[in-house]
Design a protein that fits this description.
The chain has 20 helices and 17 strands. The protein is an alpha/beta fold and 570 residues long. It has a five-stranded parallel sheet with strand order 3-2-1-13-14, with helices on both faces. The chain has a four-stranded antiparallel sheet with strand order 5-4-9-10. Bound molecules: zinc ion.
């Protein structure tokens, strides 16, 4: 039995994620986790909310809540929606957890001891009224480029020019509105990534079979311009992991927290500690410490392409730099972007379909199927309502749903709600068994390789094979001439439902569970020998006809949704 550690990029806390976020990390990670569990492997799938940083503070202020309370609430909201989408995390943690605080501070100390963290002095905007240094986003003023009066300290939203807070005309604090801002000297911690360039490059070169998208992004960051840059890893904020703590090897860092990009990936590890704390397991080190059993673990990360630099360089720099035996990633599966109906999904502009809205109009499996079968792997892909309607109606309703419905209803009308006995499988049955055997092995190979679209295509072909068999065997016609032969055909058909439920579970877990319940299946083991798997339900085995698995999307609904989601979310 293999042991597989899976993490998906941790979603930011400030609001509900859209479908583009979902298909870029959590959903394919869930597909892989479910598949590996289905194959009988030991899986640890971890995810969490990313809760620190300025945007969390700003979102909390907008909601009129203390930031800790806001994060607790939003974590619950995200956990609930994830569960309703069938995301099968072993634990869904929080980057603001005490475990992540301890571990982040631990890594910082180790990096400092190994000469990889340095204190640097710089001047920064200070607000005497607020009694604090102000991060870029807490300063507004007039853009020197276009005259826009609400330009932020880091960028003008009107003309998109990148700015420094000192560039702003009439700068003011967005916390208090104070205008008596002054430049003061302050200290920050820098992670000396430039010292680790060779080690990181060497490590990346030892990673086998990484997708081109992943390695090319990493190499670009390593070598472009002046190469990998040292990184400030502290910020002047209240909300976050304190830089000054008992046992810190530096002083004078009060009122500063670690930069969110330093602590967020460490939460992947801290999440396993939270998993123990939640009583879900006992030994987290056998997943994360190579000196304590994790050397035989395969670690796979899922993320959108924008997160690749942090996972190929920043987080490995933290781990390698600690000189401690932490598990490093073995494979990074990264995704391009999913666009929305001629535009882009956007959280800040509220454009596209968000996870909660999706579930209001259709069950999770409809979305899971479309998103995974159109995953933006080799290039960006686009969600359109026409394509969604076609895919759901054809693949799910016409092919799989119709197959299940026809065979169970026909059996009930002629033989009752039990697998019929009599007859034997002939050449036609053998042909479909042979085809399925080939296709199932191909499906497994694609799933192992995390080729999401190819896996979906193969699964669909597996459903189609059953449908075509049923169409050509036509037990409803056979029954009139040879009821025994019709019984054998129906027996195969009912066994196919069980097989489809097992194979389809990673993609459409809810429909799969419905099929297994209807067929009263106790043994949902992954098929080894296909002929054997297709005799798992013996004659006399009782079942019930399930409700329609999938309904069709009408043209009216499609037009209605298209219009409803065309605007910007309120
Ligand atoms: Zn401007």
């Amino acid at each position: 039995m293999a042991r597989i550690l899976i993490t998906s990029a941790i979603p930011y806390i400030n609001g509900i994620k859209h479908l583009g976020n979902l298909v870029g990390s959590q959903l394919p990670a869930d597909l892989f986790a479910r598949y590996q569990r289905g194959r009988g492997n030991e899986v640890m799938y971890l995810c969490a909310t990313d809760e620190h940083g300025t945007p969390a503070e700003l979102a909390a202020a907008k909601a009129g809540k203390p930031v800790a309370e806001y994060c607790t609430e939003m974590h619950e909201v995200q956990a609930d929606i994830a569960a309703r989408f069938g995301l099968s995390f072993d634990h869904f943690g929080r980057s603001s957890s005490p475990r992540n605080h301890e571990l982040t501070q631990h890594f910082a100390v180790k990096l400092y001891e190994n000469g990889l963290i340095e204190e640097r002095s710089e001047t920064q905007m200070y607000s005497p009224t607020d009694g604090r240094f102000l991060p870029d986003r807490y300063i507004e003023g007039t853009c020197p480029n276009c005259g826009f009066e609400s330009a932020r300290g880091d960028q003008c939203d009107n003309c998109t020019k990148q700015l420094d807070p000192v560039d702003l005309i009439n700068p003011r604090s967005t916390v208090s509105g104070a205008t008596d801002l002054e430049m003061r000297e302050t200290k920050h911690l820098y992670l000396l990534q430039s010292k680790m360039k060779d080690q990181l490059e060497e490590w990346i070169d030892t990673r086998e079979g990484w997708p081109l998208l992943t390695t090319s992004i990493a190499k670009k960051w390593l070598t472009d311009g002046d190469g990998l840059q040292d990184r400030g890893i502290t910020r002047d904020l209240n909300w976050g992991i304190p830089v000054q703590f008992d046992g810190a090897p530096w002083s004078g860092m009060d009122g500063k927290v670690f930069y969110v990009w330093f602590d967020a990936p460490i939460e992947y590890i801290a999440c396993a500690l939270e998993w123990v704390e939640a009583g879900k397991g006992t030994d987290w080190e056998r997943w994360w410490r190579t000196d304590k059993g994790a050397s035989d673990v395969t670690y796979v990360q899922f993320m959108g392409k924008d997160n690749v630099p942090f996972h190929t360089l920043s987080f490995p720099a933290t781990i390698l730099g600690s000189e401690e035996p932490w598990k490093l990633v073995d494979y990074i599966k990264s995704f391009n972007y999913l666009n929305y109906d001629g535009g882009q999904f956007s959280t800040s502009r509220g454009c596209g379909v968000f996870m909660d809205q999706a579930l209001e109009i259709l069950p999770a499996d409809y979305w899971r199927w479309w998103l995974l079968s159109h995953a933006p792997e080799s290039s960006d892909s686009e969600f359109t309502w026409e394509n969604f309607q076609t895919s759901v109606n054809k693949d799910l309703a016409d092919v799989l749903g119709n197959f299940v419905s026809r065979i169970t209803k026909f059996c009930r009308s002629k033989f009752g709600e039990a697998v019929p006995e009599g007859g034997a499988y002939g050449a036609q049955e053998q042909a479909v068994i042979d085809e399925l055997a080939t296709r199932i092995r191909a499906y497994e190979a694609h799933m192992e390789a995390m080729e999401v679209r190819k896996s979906a295509q193969e699964l669909r072909a597996i459903w189609v094979a059953g449908n075509e068999y049923l169409q050509s065997a036509a037990p409803w016609a056979t029954f009139k001439e040879d009821p025994e032969q019709a019984a054998a055909q129906v027996r195969l058909g009912l066994n196919l439902i069980r097989l489809y439920a097992v194979l389809s579970a990673p993609f459409i877990p809810f429909a799969s569970a419905q099929m297994l319940t209807a067929m009263s299946v106790e043994d949902a083991a992954w098929p080894g020998d296909v002929a054997e798997a297709l005799s798992a339900l013996p004659a006399g085995h009782v079942f019930t006809v399930p409700d329609n698995l999938f309904r069709k999307i009408t043209d009216d609904e499609r037009a209605d949704w298209q219009e409803r989601f065309a605007g910007v979310r309120a």
